[in-house]
């Protein structure tokens, strides 16, 4: 009996808090393994240090409580199913035993979860909660609960919003509103596309007009340069005329200062006529 009272085995996943009949709760908790105690003086209280969870949902099973009823920012009724996962802080198990004891689920966790979920839901509109703001609601609940858990020697692991329910009439009105907003967004997108297309057409027209002006300016400058070249070099006029004459006409340019052209075919016509019998 003395040996059995003097030896204690702490199972895996648990932590032991020693209560001495002489000095009360010892500040150093016992971790997993075999420990020696003072027989008939020390008594060990085991606490589960593994991951635990508490669920508050509309279907009560395995000791779960009912769902949380809250009101949105505009006063609409919202029902939330929530699961909270947590652990006992091993290093502070002795303090937890002194201040809360084994009934910390009833005295701290469940009432605080209900309170913080109601507070977080009351900061948002119903439409935002069931659509785009769900993660923000979870984050707000997690932040506030983590503070409460730390003050009570518990470690919050996660908060899960399993389901959020609102009245059917309100849900239908929200869906209609969202559908109208999506239609407005579609029409706005079409308007933007039409505006972009019109701007593109204007830019293309301006570019074409500028190209035509530049082309006309280039042609005018080319003609101006050609006229200047002809004025400065009169021989170019005769060369140009010769190039434009029909290839069937035989012409010769006399090397004189007169600057004129003779049609060789005209000069040879009388000779050809005289040769005929």
Helices and strands in order, then pairings?
Layout (H helix, E strand, L loop, with lengths): L1 H5 E4 L3 E7 L3 E2 L7 E4 L5 E7 L3 E5 L11 E4 L5 E12 L4 H7 L4 H18 L4 H4 L4 H18 L2 E12 L2 H65 L2 H10 L6 E3 L7 E3 H11 L3
Antiparallel strand pairs: 1-4, 2-3, 2-5, 6-8, 7-8, 8-9, 10-11
Helix pairs in contact: 3-5
Structural account:
15% of the residues are buried. Helix 3 runs antiparallel to helix 5. The C terminus is likely disordered. It is built from eight helices and eleven strands. A hairpin with a 5-residue loop joins strand 7 and strand 8. It is α+β, with helices and mostly antiparallel strands and 277 residues long. Strands 6, 7, 8 and 9 form a four-stranded antiparallel β-sheet that branches. The protein starts with a helix and ends with a helix. Helix content is 50%, strand content 23%.
Largest beta-sheet characterization: 4 strands, antiparallel
Shape: elongated
Q: Point out poorly predicted stretches.
A: 271-277
Q: Using the CA coordinates, give the radius of gyration.
A: 50 Å
Helix and strand run: HEEEEEEEEHHHHEHHEEH
The assigned structural class equals alpha+beta
Q: What's the average pLDDT?
A: 80
Helix content: 40-55%
Name the quaternary structure. single chain
- Counted by DSSP, the helix tally is 8
Compact overview of the structure:
This protein has 277 residues and is α+β, with helices and mostly antiparallel strands. The chain is 50% helix and 23% strand. The strands form 4 sheets. Strands 6, 7, 8 and 9 form a 4-stranded antiparallel beta sheet that branches.
């Amino acid at each position: 009996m003395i040996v059995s009272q003097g030896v204690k085995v702490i199972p895996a996943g648990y932590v032991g808090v020693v209560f001495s009949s002489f000095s009360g709760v010892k500040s150093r908790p016992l971790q997993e393994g075999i420990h020696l105690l003072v027989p008939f003086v020390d008594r060990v209280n085991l606490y589960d240090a593994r991951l635990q969870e508490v669920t508050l949902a509309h279907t009560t099973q395995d000791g779960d409580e009912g769902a949380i009823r809250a009101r949105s920012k505009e006063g609409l009724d919202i029902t939330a199913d929530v699961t909270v996962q947590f652990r006992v802080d091993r290093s502070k198990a002795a303090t937890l035993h002194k201040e809360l004891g084994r009934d910390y689920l009833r005295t701290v966790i469940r009432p605080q979860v209900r309170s913080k979920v109601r507070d977080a839901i009351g900061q948002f509109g119903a439409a935002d909660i069931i659509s785009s703001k769900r993660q923000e609601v979870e984050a707000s609940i997690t932040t506030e609960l983590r503070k409460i858990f730390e003050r009570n020697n518990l470690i919050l692991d996660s908060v899960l919003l399993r389901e959020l329910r609102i009245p059917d009439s309100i849900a239908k009105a929200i869906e209609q509103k969202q559908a109208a907003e999506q239609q407005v967004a579609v029409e706005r997108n079409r308007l933007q596309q039409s505006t972009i297309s019109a701007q593109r057409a204007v830019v293309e027209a301006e570019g074409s007009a500028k190209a035509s002006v530049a082309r006309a300016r280039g042609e005018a400058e080319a003609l101006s340069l050609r006229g200047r070249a002809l004025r400065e070099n009169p021989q170019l006029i005769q060369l140009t005329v010769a190039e434009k004459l029909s290839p069937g006409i035989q012409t010769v340019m006399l090397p004189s200062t007169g600057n004129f052209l003779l049609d060789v075919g005209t000069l040879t016509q009388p000779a050809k006529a005289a040769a005929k019998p």
